Amino acid sequence: MNYKIIKKDGRAKRAELTTVHGTIQTPVFMNVGTVAAIKGAVSTDDLRDIKTQVQLSNTYHLHVRTGDKVIREFGGLHEFMNWDRPILTDSGGFQVFSLTGLRKIKEEGVYFQSHIDGHKIFMGPEESMQIQSNLGSTIAMAFDECPPHPATRKYMQDSVDRTTRWLDRSRIEMARLNSLPETLNKEQLLFGINQGGTYEDIRIAHAKTISAMDLDGYALGGLAVGESHFEMYRILEETVPYLPENKPIYLMGVGTPANILESVERGVDFFDCVYPSRNGRHGHVYTNYGKLNLFNSKFELDRRPIEEGCQCPACKSYSRAYIRHLLKAKEMLGMRLSVLHNLYFYNTMMEEIRDAIDNQCYGEYKERKLAKMAEGQS
């Protein structure tokens, strides 16, 4: 791995991360394909066309269906889904958070019931690393617990301490797996996750502890889980300076275009979120003048594309009226076009962000972009 900062503008970083599966230009938005596909009938050829750099898949979901051992038989996720660029796999830790009532957290790991058929599953740091090694992803995430919000200080501290112990076990197991001759990707990278909720002193102490482990990259987890945007930005401002500047910083599960713009200014350079695909499937599309709901009746006779000048597959060929018709008729094409537009919008915004940092005008770009999006359109 080689992470090289090309330019800085305040805390905003413009960098390159060179991996075994190609070089990632940062800041970057990772397009979320939970089960090795973007929901909305988006193919990997589509992803290349809309400027996707990194695809993100989920360890837990692929483990329970179709199975990481099956995917390994195909040579890993890259071969299985025909994707030749970087892939990041989430560790399954967020499912610890989201499957409340179906899991028990112990020191050794987590006992799950599958959300699909109820069968019992155990996943600890070693199991998570083994599954991600079978998937052969470019970047693996360490196994962690994502605490709920709000949580008591005692619960948060106990959870963070356990996450630290799990990170050390993840690191040891990843090193072991990468040394084996049969491992699919012996250059698999490992990112650790900073936790601590909105307790800034716990966050900072944890950031210092995990920074000493000299990992390939660092993520901030447990944000955008119910706290206000103000609280999230405060935690970023306080915590990011205690993570290594010469390593990629990833804000997990975030977010809206405004969240990304604000977080880049605070030193983050990796993002992921289901918003563009999820909102697209429900007819909500992003533009430089705010979000549109294509189900609104005012678009029934609107011959314009979703956004004038946009070069995505939807805007180059179809009107708002037609896409609205498809969505109302529950035709898959309507969802597909809306998702493609939203992902293209996000990927293009990241290009603009990189250019603004290169040109040392990120602050002005951010303010202009936010003001434009708040302005709205007809």
Mean pLDDT: 95
**How large is the radius of gyration?**
20 Å
Largest sheet, in brief, is: 8 strands, parallel, barrel
Termini separation (Å)?
A: 47 Å
The name of the CATH superfamily of the largest domain reads Queuine tRNA-ribosyltransferase-like
The count of β-strands is: 16
What percentage of residues falls in helices of 4 or more residues? 40-55%
Low-confidence sequence ranges? none
Described by its quaternary structure, the protein is: single chain
How many helix segments?
15
Structural class: alpha/beta
The CATH class of the largest domain is identified as Alpha Beta
Order of the strands making up the biggest sheet: 4-5-6-10-11-12-13-14
CATH topology of the largest domain: TIM Barrel
β-sheet strand percentage: 15-25%
CATH architecture of the largest domain: Alpha-Beta Barrel
GO biological process, one term: tRNA queuosine(34) biosynthetic process
Domain tRNA-guanine(15) transglycosylase-like: 11-373
Keywords: Glycosyltransferase, Metal-binding, Queuosine biosynthesis, Transferase, tRNA processing, Zinc
Pathway: tRNA modification; tRNA-queuosine biosynthesis
Short description:
With 378 residues, this protein is α/β, with parallel strands linked by helices.
Which structural traits does this protein have?
alpha/beta; TIM Barrel; 2 domains; eight-stranded parallel barrel
Q: Strands, helices and their partners?
A:
Elements: E1 2-9, E2 12-19, E3 22-26, E4 28-32, H1 44-49, E5 55-58, H2 59-64, H3 68-73, H4 77-81, E6 87-90, H5 93-98, E7 103-105, E8 110-113, E9 120-123, H6 125-135, E10 139-141, H7 153-178, E11 189-194, H8 200-211, E12 217-220, H9 229-239, E13 249-251, H10 257-265, E14 270-272, H11 275-281, E15 284-287, E16 290-293, H12 313-317, H13 320-328, H14 332-358, H15 362-375
Parallel strand pairs: 4-5, 4-14, 5-6, 6-10, 10-11, 11-12, 12-13, 13-14
Antiparallel strand pairs: 1-2, 2-3, 7-8, 8-9, 15-16
Helix pairs in contact: 6-7, 7-8, 10-15, 11-14, 13-14, 14-15
